Amino acid sequence: MDVIYKMDELDRVLSAAEFEWDRGNIGKNWERPRVAYFECEEVLLNGQFIITKDTAHSATEDHYRVLGKTDEGRVLFLAFALRGHKIRVITARDVNKRERKAYEEAKKSTAL
Description:
The chain has 112 residues and is of the alpha+beta class.
């Protein structure tokens, strides 16, 4: 997973700061992986994450992938779309071994 270093892209995501939730995306992430909507918000608002643009899924709107930590220390993978000034989480789950390793390596080499 490549880290986005372009600040204009990162600033655009962080400036959204409003989340779009409905029964669909709240329920889907809670049913199987047991990720609460507020944990997704924590990952992005805490600022301790790795983010990449998902160019394969960005034809009609910008999509991103994130590895980050919740307030309780849970490391999650998030995929979300940026819709205007809103962040819509598409999926959230615990990281797998490869993602955890990437997150830990980024943490060591940066100020995460």
